[in-house]
Amino acid sequence: MKAIYALVDANNFYASCEKIFDPSLANRPVVVLSNNDGCIVARSAESKALGIPMGAPIHQWKDFCTEHGVVIKSSNYTLYGDMSARMLSILQDMCPQVESYSIDESFMNLAGYADPTAYGYSIRARLQQDIKITCGVGIGPTKTLSKFANHLAKKNAEFGGVFNTLDHSPEELNRWMAAYPVSDVWGVGRQLTKRLNDDGVETVLDLAHCDGVSIRKRYGIVLEKTVRELRGESCLTFEEIGKPKQQIMVSRSFGTTISDPQAIKAALTHHISRAAEKLRAQQSICSMVYVMLRTNPFREKDIQYRRTLLVPLAHGSADTRVLMEAALKGLRQIFVPGLRYHKCGVMLSELEPAGKQQTDLFAAVDDPKRLRLMGLIDSINKAQGSGTIHMASTKLSAAWQMRAGDRSPHYTTCWEELPIAYA
Questions:
Q1: 20: part of which helix (H) or strand (E)?
Q2: Which of 62, 121, 309, 378 could covalently link to 330 via disulfide, CB atoms 3.0 to 4.6 Å apart?
Q3: For 292-319, what is the mean pLDDT?
Q4: 410 touches 76 (CB < 8 A)
Q5: How buried is residue 309: exposed, middle or buried, by Cβ count under 10 Å (0-12/13-18/19+)?
Q6: Which residues is 288 bridged to in the sheet?
């Protein structure tokens, strides 16, 4: 049975999560800031109507927000992550095949449902009733078409939040494709849009009518698959949730610029501990550790510096100590004294299943006792809270702590911060 894809995408997810638990924010413009209250990463519908751009530095828009009564919120990823998990749980309850695409988007396979459009409205109603999240539902025979259908569902009120390409004739669908720019196609970014425009491809329909062979020669196989998907030929497989990641990255900006090597070391070891925990959770090992360190690009008066270094391991490992030694080795090579650093991070690469490790004649594999110890630490931290047990070197300074002056309470994950209803 051919798949029928439904893309469920929450509307203004971060801003919506803020409004759910604070009735005073209803119908008010809201923006959510990035880590350390730097840039605007989410906007409510009211904020979009005011013309506030995505990604704008908040210091440039602070006066505008004050003038127009825009509520500014620091990011609350604990709340957003929990609401995302609740949303995913509802979708899994309504459909046996669900693929989580991002924190607020999931693909569902509605093949076999008698009326996918009607079920799309049911999905939308269930999310609104259970967790007060409003979403758009796009349905089509391919992932790319369902993504475009979701765009139409959100942009055109007459569809009531649900658009199914299978309900429309090819002529009607062509008219919709001709009405939207090629930049609205899933995976077509700014640079690719410019190249396509230079070649005369302006609309979604223009791209759908392109010759696949020519597209592949000039732009590569990925865009060729996109063209085929726009024509209704499914090229992107349905991935089940839980597929191991191919890379694991952990990074974060400091609360303020710092020069102290010990503070940077503590932040880096903290990142590697979190990455190692994620690595073991998916039962993988890694063979490459990338280390990144940079200054603040927005502080023009500071010396600008950015460096990334790859540190290969003698053998694949999931031992925090082994990964930490590699990360600190990389840090010693890229750290330049006297600079004011803004961010550091690590990425684990060359991942493979732990049970299929290639042994080495001259390098010992992970000690089973150490791995049992790591597993015990992970289980304690999972039960008692992240960081309950940690390496001594990961003790963080106050300068590393993230700025979040306007963060809302953790309404759904902290007993002390549960919302209170007064009679």
A1: helix 13-20
A2: 309
A3: 88
A4: yes
A5: middle
A6: 312, 349
Tokens of 371: 């791995």
Query: Same domain, yes or no, for 254 and 395?
Result: yes
Helix or strand (DSSP H, E) at 331 = helix 320-334
Torsion (CA) 11, 15, 17, 19 in degrees, nearest 10 = -110
Phi, psi for 335 (deg, rounded to 5): -75, 130
Place of tokens 């196609």: 185
Report the interhelical angle of 212-219 vs 221-230 (nearest 10°): 150
Whole-prediction pTM: 0.73
CB 138 within 8 A of CB 161: no
Residues in Cβ contact with 284 at an 8 Å cutoff, skipping those fewer than 6 apart: 244, 318, 351, 352, 353, 354
How far from 199 is each of 128, 176, 278, CA to CA, in Å? Answer: 43, 21, 43
- Taking CA atoms, 271 is separated from 23, 90, 186, 243, in Å, by 36, 32, 31, 22
> Hey, how many other C-beta atoms are within 10 angstroms of the C-beta on 38?
17
Q: Is residue 36 part of a domain?
A: yes
Residue-level pLDDT at 402: 55
Q: What token pair was written down for 32?
A: 């959510």
Distance CA 108, CA 240 (A): 10
What residues make up the domain containing 67? 10-139
Instruction: State phi, psi for 14 to the nearest 5 degrees.
Output: -60, -45
Q: What is the CATH number of the domain that holds 74?
A: 3.40.1170.60
The rounded mean pLDDT for the chain is 88
Among residues 124, 139, 154, the one where a domain terminates is: 139
Q: Is residue 338 helix, strand or coil? A: coil
The answer to whether 232 touches 139, Cβ cutoff 8 Å, is: no
Distance CA 203, CA 210 (A): 11
Count CB-CB contacts under 10 A for residue 303: 10
Looking at the 3D structure of the chain, how many domains does it have? Answer: 2
Strand partners, 248: 348
Q: How many residues can be counted in the chain?
A: 423
Say yes or no to pLDDT of 1 above 80.
Answer: no
What are the residues facing 352 on neighbouring strands? Answer: 285
Beta pairing class for 105-109 and 135-140: unpaired
Q: Is the pLDDT of residue 392 over 80?
A: no
Cβ atoms of residues 109 and 92 within 8 Å = no
